[in-house]
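Sharing in case it's useful to others searching the archive later.

Someone asked me privately for the predicted structure of Major facilitator superfamily (MFS) profile domain-containing protein, so I'm posting the question and my answer publicly. Question first, with the sequence:
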Amino acid sequence: MNAHRPARDDAGTMTPPRPLRRPGIEDGTRYMRMMVNLTAMIGGPLFLLTVILHPARDGHDIAAHAQWYAFTHSMEAISLLVQATCLAGVLALGMREFGSRGLAALYTALAGTMLWFGLIVFDGGHNPVTAKYAPDLVHTSKDIDVEGGIIVLAANIVFPLGYVLLALLLNRYGQRLTGLLLGFGGVVYAIGGTAALFGFGPHSMVTSVFEIVGAAPYAVGYVLLGRSFARAG
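And my answer, the predicted structure tokens:
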């Protein structure tokens, strides 16, 4: 007997066949949603914690606490990798739903996150060495070479742009608050991380204020993003 053939109930009416269950795909989607939720819950708060624990930025303080400086940047880099994993999961789950513009927004946010990862790795490795031999050059325009300048410039363009585009995408799908937190937080944090740092100098607290004010809503936005995809499952 054909398993897809409609059955008759006691009243003699036709009942539609039950759809075939595809456990592999359903289980894979469920695990993907769990992964997005878990990485969002880890990546956002860990990022905020590393920003709060960021040591002083002038060369003499970095030279005195080089290991702590390198450690906080390593942990921040890890948090960005976790965030990138979260975005890759969102990208996989929304491949059919978001359309070409939505996918472009997600790809841009993912690329920006990876570029900022590169910036943080470069910062955490380069500045302690420079601080040891020329502390007055650290976090000044005199210490920017072509290679470092490319990383800094690309990250500062693509990172905030990506999260603004992601905010617009989420807004279209009813996640206005999540998008607002990620977009606002990403832009403010990026401004603090470079523009405020070089504008006000490494001794100023303005950079720390900008970064924390940006990282806080950014982290909450990731938590909400993970929860929304967990509920959707």
